[in-house]
């Protein structure tokens, strides 16, 4: 008997998916010659990764600071390092990650003004402006790419308000960096929480925070609040070619390989175009299948994925398990449930990572069988 070929697993999740071959090449070969993370061999890795990130994002007024961890680590580091203990923070939240910002700020004991909106609802810019104009807060935090609803918040507009009223704007750009075009220079954004695994297509071992240089200078005088995640201390060390703790050189090599791959494929604009081409196949395909895309008024859709209503008579678990176990043209697919408050109504399909467009055509065939 001839064994059936193992189907190719396509990740339609935003966390872990197939990566560029150059990144995989590091994973395959690094173990033959590990790099001790100190001394002269570490400095060029830190420099290339940090400068490569700033260059890819076209953001010379910012410093990239690398941390061991995933996106949430960067959230904790930015919230815990960029604010004084007594600064009043406006948290604009309309999704699961805005809830996380609120949770982390509350854990840190930050005085918070909570603008808690229904998931997906566009923040009211006039209300935000009124709070800033009345000097009720010193800083604002908001998510850019809302991964729970697959929508984009009006970041340029909120950035302009932060600039106008001289407030510190801290942004969760974890799902948007390297994919969504975002002009950081002159944007009014003081710091960005980032990641190296989502739009950059590396592993979730290292993460990044971007801090505008004038804020970094101010942070020298902000007492430390989050041990091991102090951004100013870490930046000082990394500028000197070191890291205050152990940092994984293999992960640095993977980030460098991912940055080189990004540059070779047209940078952020090129990646945005790739993701948009996937949207152009998938979204009309969903509609042909009778699925309804979750949309909110005046909220553009993210480029990395789509939230869809669970069709009547179907459950998420049933659809997900059939997609993951019944091969179509040699492929099986892993999809993602919605988060928290939305999980009984919506499910999500992301199209991140290194897959040919053909994989999404095949996915639509597989999806047709389960909806
Ligand atoms: C993924 C994500 C996070 C958190 O990332 P983890 O990888 O779970 O640490 C935070 N914010 C947004 C918008 C995200 O998409």
From TrEMBL:
Q: Write out the GO MF terms.
A: transaminase activity
Q: What is its EC number?
A: 2.6.1.-
Q: Where N6-(pyridoxal phosphate)lysine occurs along the chain?
A: 198
**Protein residues bound to substrate:** 348
TM segment ranges: none
Keyword vocabulary terms for this entry: Aminotransferase, Pyridoxal phosphate, Transferase
The coenzyme or cofactor needed here is: pyridoxal 5'-phosphate
Q: Specify the domain of life of the species encoding this protein.
A: Bacteria
Please report the stretch or stretches of sequence annotated as the Aminotransferase class V domain: 45-221
InterPro entries named among the record's database cross-references: Aminotrans_V_dom, PyrdxlP-dep_Trfase, PyrdxlP-dep_Trfase_major, PyrdxlP-dep_Trfase_small, SP_NH2Trfase/AEP_transaminase
**Name of this protein:** 2-aminoethylphosphonate:pyruvate aminotransferase
User: Organism source for this protein?
Assistant: Sorangium cellulosum (strain So ce56) (Polyangium cellulosum (strain So ce56))
